[in-house]
Design a protein that fits this description.
The complex is a heterodimer of chains A (69) and B (224). With 69 residues, chain A is mainly α. Helix content of chain A is 88%, strand content 0%. Chain B has one domain. In chain B, helix 2 runs antiparallel to helix 3, helix 2 runs antiparallel to helix 5 and helix 4 packs antiparallel against helix 5. Chain B has six helices and no strands. Chain B is globular and about 65 Å long. Classes of the chains: A mainly alpha (69), B mainly alpha (224). Chains A and B meet through helix 3 of A and helix 1 and helix 6 of B.
Chain lengths: 69, 224
């Protein structure tokens, strides 16, 4: 009986340790997968807006040259 | 033609594309096997081809008008539209290859859609080679306009018709789903259709800037 309780205690001990490991621990993966898509969206939008502004500036310079002619 | 010198539609184009970038990445999409999140590629890959079709259509339209009137400006519009179309063609091919790597397993799997797109690409490369190989201006304009009129329907058949008649892996071809009722819901439509129109307008914008530059070059080279 003593041996059995000891074994059960040890088992439960292990179970608690195990539970701690698999508990809702904040992992880096979770942050990477859910929260940071907005960073990517912002990056893409900035890149595109930059290109658009560049195209607008080319357009304006072209207008000036066309007026000079 | 006056509208290419105006700004309002360019601003709208940029705003709509920014909307499709944000909504295309954040809005919900149907869950599908194999595709997963790459279903969002529809918002960015397919509009490249739409932009290409738009500028190629403008190109062939002005090639016909050039043959009717002989006005040099029309030839310049045709060639710069075709050049812009080639740019969107390359972007469309590269994005398609990247997507194919992660859904079909290889960048190039000799799929009918891929092969016929490559042939159509060479067809338009030949247009540009043909143009640059003729020195005499009017002859060059006339021959390349005629070539363009022949190349356009062949390109349409190669990209849109032939892959649909064989078993291509590409969505929308060979019985595979694409824009059908079952696999495209309204969440996708409110992003995809504005993207088609806005990227087409973007193509027209770039082509018009290139045309205006070429027009200045042309006037400079003229002997008065």
């Amino acid at each position: 009986m003593k041996k059995l309780t000891l074994m059960l205690m040890l088992l439960l001990n292990f179970a608690t340790v195990f539970a701690q490991q698999n508990g809702p621990v904040e992992m880096a993966d979770a942050l990477r997968s859910s929260g940071k898509i907005y960073v990517v969206v912002c990056t893409i939008v900035i890149v595109f807006l930059g290109l658009a502004i560049y195209l607008f500036s080319i357009d304006r310079r072209l207008k000036k040259i066309e007026k000079d002619q | 033609m006056k509208f290419i010198y105006q700004t309002w539609w360019k601003v709208i184009t940029v705003i709509v594309i920014v909307y499709t970038l944000i909504a295309g990445l954040l809005l919900g999409v149907p869950t599908m096997p194999i595709l997963h999140e790459t279903i969002r590629n529809t918002y960015f890959h397919v509009p490249m081809w739409m932009a290409m079709f738009t500028v190629f259509t403008i190109s062939v339209y002005y090639s016909i008008k050039y043959l009717q009137t002989g006005k040099e400006e029309y030839d310049l519009i045709a060639v710069e539209s075709a050049n812009t179309g080639l740019f969107f063609f390359v972007i469309g091919l590269i994005t398609g290859m990247l997507w194919a790597r992660y859904t079909w397993g290889a960048f190039w799997s000799n799929d009918p859609k891929q092969n016929s797109a490559a042939i159509a690409f060479l067809l338009y490369c030949a247009y540009s080679v043909l143009r640059n190989s003729i020195d005499e201006e009017q002859k060059r304009a006339k021959i390349s306009a005629i070539y363009n009129i022949f190349a356009f329907p062949i390109m349409i058949v190669l990209i849109m018709v032939l892959p649909r008649m064989t078993d291509s892996l590409h969505p929308g071809n060979g019985g595979n789903p694409a824009f059908g009722k079952l696999d495209m819901d309204n969440r996708m439509r409110i992003v995809l259709y504005p993207a088609f129109i806005a990227w087409s307008a973007m193509g027209v914008w770039i082509a018009s800037v290139r045309y205006r530059i070429r027009l200045i070059e042309y006037k400079k080279n003229q002997i008065n």
